[in-house]
């Protein structure tokens, strides 16, 4: 043993074994992300909002499950101006990936360590009150640059942001702090994705818009030198009055419309597909129970395909027995309960399916398009949550 030079021996061994056993990411189940679709969507959205409005690509939650770095780069290529994230860590990850554009942290940072990190990494924090503003000012005191911040105003979401009637006072106090630079002011829409947009624009969104405009009026000319922003995807697509100086788009950047039955002339392309392979084919008698709890019993002699994807991969168990997947352009129904790692499809009507063939569970396959909205309607969720759930075990393949 002692005569063997450890490094030499191990390196040789490791390299051969790894190259042999490294699994193909497409061997079981995977997420396919079309980065050109994201780039296209950013371009389409940028054209739609016009040159006087900035486009923020919201890439929080690992780019809505698409991969934050991939999405950020594609969106910037397509003409996005800035990025939005929810947490400090998400911002740092993008800096480490070499991105140098402005990045706004949409969540609340509460202590000086977090705010110091934000300053160090050139990430713009969202401030909802004077407490954080003072911390920021102290951090940047005697430093080579000012601490750039955005102020958030609550116009009716009742989440982050200061009260509308505090803004005037807050802005004048912030402007007295020499080491911070208030660059933007914003608010967030609560129900823009639920408003009936085909009706006249009298809704809670209108109330929020009125409140935001009132706030801007309160601070007078000062607001002209701020980046004012209010709209998410739903606001962006529904009414240009909501655009102001910048829009913050998430869902539409990924190719989906935020509103059911929302007619859009924009050519947005869904960027994500979820695929999995058939790992086993079974032929069973009529009356055979399938999966945990035997939620499904065959009503005829059946051919079943076992597919290797489950709720641990992000397919909600609430979808059990409700979804279909596309294979060779044909839809086959999922039967029985969705388990942690597997689910079963009834392929009796498409008996030529073989082991190793690929099913598309979500996304486009030939003529079929299975949308996150379709899944979320079936499972009592929303498309945003469906997209964010593919983050644990599924490899991501960028095309
Ligand atoms: C997530 C988020 C957005 C993006 O919303 P979409 O509906 O996905 O377009 C915009 N603004 C804020 C503050 C957010 O948190």
From TrEMBL:
> Where does it sit, as one GO cellular component term?
cytosol
Keyword Isomerase listed? The answer is: yes
* Source taxon at top rank: Bacteria
GO MF assignments: alanine racemase activity; pyridoxal phosphate binding
Active site at 60 (proton acceptor), 292 (proton acceptor)
Cofactor(s) the protein needs: pyridoxal 5'-phosphate
An individual GO BP term: D-alanine biosynthetic process
Q: At which residues is N6-(pyridoxal phosphate)lysine found?
A: 60
Q: What is its EC number?
A: 5.1.1.1
Family matches, as PANTHER family: ALANINE RACEMASE (PTHR30511), ALANINE RACEMASE, CATABOLIC-RELATED (PTHR30511:SF0)
Mind telling me which HAMAP family this protein's record contains?
Ala_racemase
What name does UniProt use for this protein?
A: Alanine racemase
| Protein source organism | Prochlorococcus marinus XMU1408
């Amino acid at each position: 043993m002692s005569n063997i030079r450890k490094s030499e021996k191990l390196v040789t061994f490791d390299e051969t074994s790894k190259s042999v056993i490294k699994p193909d990411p497409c061997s079981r189940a995977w997420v396919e992300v079309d980065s050109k679709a994201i780039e296209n969507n950013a371009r389409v959205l940028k054209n739609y909002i016009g040159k006087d409005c900035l486009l923020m690509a919201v890439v929080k939650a690992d780019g809505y499950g698409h991969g934050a770095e991939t999405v950020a780069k594609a969106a910037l290529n397509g003409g996005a101006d800035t990025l939005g994230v929810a947490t400090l860590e998400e911002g740092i990850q993008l800096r480490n990936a070499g991105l140098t554009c402005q990045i706004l942290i949409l969540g609340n940072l509460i202590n000086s360590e977090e705010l110091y990190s934000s300053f160090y990494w050139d990430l713009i924090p969202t401030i909802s009150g004077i407490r954080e503003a003072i911390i920021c000012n102290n951090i940047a005191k005697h430093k080579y640059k000012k601490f750039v911040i955005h102020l958030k105003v609550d116009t009716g979401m009742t989440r982050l942001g200061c009260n509308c009637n505090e803004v005037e006072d807050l802005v004048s106090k912030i402007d007295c702090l020499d080491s911070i630079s208030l660059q933007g002011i914003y608010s967030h829409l609560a129900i823009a994705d639920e408003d009936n947009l085909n009706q006249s624009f009298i809704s809670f969104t209108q109330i929020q818009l009125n409140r935001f405009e009132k706030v801007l009026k309160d601070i007078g000319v000062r607001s002209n030198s701020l980046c004012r922003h209010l709209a998410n995807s739903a606001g962006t697509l529904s009414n240009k009055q909501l655009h102001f100086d910048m829009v913050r788009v998430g869902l539409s950047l990924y190719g989906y419309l935020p509103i059911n039955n929302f007619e859009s002339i924009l050519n947005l392309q869904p960027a994500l597909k979820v695929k999995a392979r058939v790992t086993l084919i079974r032929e069973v008698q009529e009356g055979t129970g399938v999966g945990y709890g035997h939620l499904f019993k065959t009503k005829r002699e059946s051919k079943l395909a076992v597919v290797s994807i489950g709720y641990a991969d992000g397919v909600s168990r609430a979808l059990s027995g409700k979804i279909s997947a596309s294979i060779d352009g044909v839809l086959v129904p999922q039967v029985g309960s969705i388990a942690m790692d597997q689910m079963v499809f009834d392929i009796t009507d498409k008996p030529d399916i073989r082991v190793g063939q690929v099913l598309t569970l979500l996304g486009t396959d030939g003529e079929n398009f299975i949308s996150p909205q379709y899944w979320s309607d079936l499972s009592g969720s929303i498309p945003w949550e469906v997209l964010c759930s593919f983050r644990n075990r599924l490899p991501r393949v960028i095309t």
